[in-house]
Design brief:
Layout lengths: L2 E7 L3 H12 L3 E6 L5 H5 L2 H20 L12 H28 L6 E6 L1 E4 L4 E6 L2 E12 L3 E3 L12 E2 L13 E5 L3 H12 L4 E5 L11 H13 L3 E3 L2 E9 L2 E8 L4 E6 L1 E4 L3 E3 L6 H4 L3 E2 L2 E2 L11 E3 L10 H16 L13 E3 L5 E5 L2 H6 L4 E7 L4 H5 L6 E7 L6 E7 L8 H8 L5 H4 L10 H11 L13 E7 L2 E3 L1
Parallel strand pairs: 1-2, 1-6, 2-3, 6-19, 8-15, 9-10, 9-15, 10-11
Antiparallel strand pairs: 4-5, 5-6, 7-16, 12-13, 13-14, 17-18, 20-21, 21-24, 22-23, 22-25, 23-24, 25-26
Helix pairs in contact: 1-8, 3-4, 3-5
């Protein structure tokens, strides 16, 4: 029976990161993956969808600027675009596979990495049964990390076939852009795909939203910019609607909605995308039999350690934030807990996020809704993109920078939201300062590159200090600084 210091089940971003960190500790590592290396994060998740988004952004720019360059309406070749997405996925997979192969060849006594394709089942806290097309094998592992990811949530009353009615997994089955599509779910994934398809200018997109606005977890000023652009791209948002049924009729989709006022209406589209969240992949691992605690959101963990001391869980299989960067962080942290002592505690307050919409939305820390829910008094400064030279140079000033700080003399940074071109370029310094529990003094005199979007952050800080270049008290509506105290707002 083969023995390993660590068995990692799942070769997605979190599992791969965990295995690579274990190599740093000079351990013997086994990675077991039942499908493809890279997981959903590469194959039909973050990488593939963001490649589609980049391509759609290019197409949208062609449409927006065709008159400037005397261009005719561009013809979109679906097959070429799909090939480009496939090439991006293959490029990343090949990198991972090549890296594993080089490490395998360079294995030394006491340090090695082995990759096995198959399905894992835990016979005990230290014994893992691996089933592949050749049969079964049992290995022994001193420690185990579960990193089997998640899959799109399906609804029992919707006949999902991944061709006509799809989840995000079915996007790769498309042979051409549909003429029309409905998206059930107005969260991040649903809105990102709505942005992609509408930007290609080939698909009429509808979104079913049970509330009065999309992205209900985000601030209203953020959402209003996104909704404005969606509707400018002919997206129909079914606000305050409840789906009564969705069926496949004559090879297309028929769905019926009931609105808040009681009105019912039937719609017909070519395709449907169901985007109502994801569920963790843990049912076939044998976890319940060996005492790993779980709930309907995922495996219950304490800083990645499960209820079974030598078994850890990272990435989407847990109830924590389901993001690639978070999964990688958790994978590395779990290994550091197993074989060493982490340099710092695992925290989520400073995790940067990006929503690939139109325009891009990036954030870190608290937004206003979250701060108010926590009962935190705060100051908020907002600078419109129209005051940022880089945005002016790009001839696209739609967007803004918004920073939240504590309502005291320290003015510690609570959060940042940036909506607009290059939004994500402004995140990392603020993420670091939040993790350090620092205030705006740390960046008050920092000289930002010019012209750049992060200059908007600098002007937010100057607003807090009363030293901004443009003076809001002169009636400049493109910038503002206000205080929010519990339920009372003071300008």
């Amino acid at each position: 029976m083969a023995k390993y210091d660590l068995c990692v089940i799942g070769a997605g971003p979190s599992g791969f990161a965990a295995a690579m960190r274990a190599i740093d500790f000079r351990k013997t590592v086994l990675i077991v993956e039942k499908e493809v290396i890279g997981g959903a994060g590469v194959t039909n998740g973050a990488l593939s969808s963001k490649t589609w988004w980049e391509l759609a952004k290019n197409v949208d720019a062609l449409y927006e600027h065709k008159s400037r360059y005397n261009l005719s309406t561009p013809e979109i070749n679906f097959n070429q675009l799909r090939d480009e997405v496939d090439a991006a996925v293959k490029e990343r997979k090949d990198q991972l596979i090549k890296h594993l192969e080089i490490l395998r060849r360079r294995s030394t006594e006491g340090t090695s990495i082995t990759f096995k394709k198959g399905e894992a089942f835990l016979k005990s806290p230290h014994l893992v049964e691996i089933t592949d097309d050749k049969g079964k094998e049992i290995i022994e592992a001193e420690n185990i990390i579960l990193a089997t990811g998640s899959r799109p949530r399906k609804l029992d009353n919707i006949p999902i076939d991944e061709h006509i009615i799809m989840t995000s997994d079915g996007i790769s089955n498309l042979k051409e852009f549909p003429k029309s599509m409905v998206i059930l779910g107005a969260g991040v994934i649903g809105c990102e795909f709505a942005t992609i398809f509408s930007s290609m200018r080939c698909t009429k997109v509808n979104i079913i939203d049970k509330g009065d606005r999309i992205l209900p977890f985000e601030d209203e000023d953020v959402v209003s910019v996104i909704e404005e652009n969606m509707e400018a791209h002919d997206i129909l948002i079914h606000r305050n609607s409840r789906m009564i049924r969705m069926e496949i009729v004559n090879g297309e989709v028929e769905y019926e909605l009931e609105y808040a006022n009681g009105r019912k209406e039937v719609y017909h589209v070519e395709k449907a995308l169901v985007s109502v969240g994801r569920v963790p992949n843990y049912e076939t691992l044998g976890l319940e039999e060996i005492g790993v605690e779980m709930d309907d959101r995922g495996i219950i963990d304490n800083d990645t350690q499960t209820s079974v001391p030598n078994i850890y869980a990272v990435g989407d299989i847990t109830a924590d934030i389901a993001l690639v960067n978070v999964g990688e962080l958790e994978g590395r942290y779990a290994v550091e807990r197993i074989f060493g002592t982490p340099a710092r505690k695992l925290v989520y307050e400073n995790i940067s996020t990006i929503m690939f919409l139109n325009p891009e939305v990036a954030g870190v820390g608290l937004n206003e809704l979250q701060a108010q829910k926590k009962g935190i008094d705060y100051k908020v400064a907002t600078v419109d993109y129209a005051l940022i030279p880089r945005a002016i140079a790009k001839r696209n000033t739609q967007g803004f920078v918004k920073m939240l700080v504590t309502d005291d003399d320290e003015m510690k940074i609570l959060g940042l939201r940036v909506v607009g071109e290059h939004a994500s370029s402004a995140m990392q310094a603020i993420s670091l300062l939040i993790s350090m529990d620092k205030g705006i003094d740390e960046i008050a005199e920092c000289v930002h590159p010019h012209p750049s979007i992060p200059e908007g952050i600098q002007e937010c800080v100057r607003l807090f200090l009363g030293t901004s270049i443009f003076k809001p008290y002169l009636g400049n509506k493109l910038m503002q600084c206000k205080v929010h105290k519990c339920e009372i707002e003071k300008v």
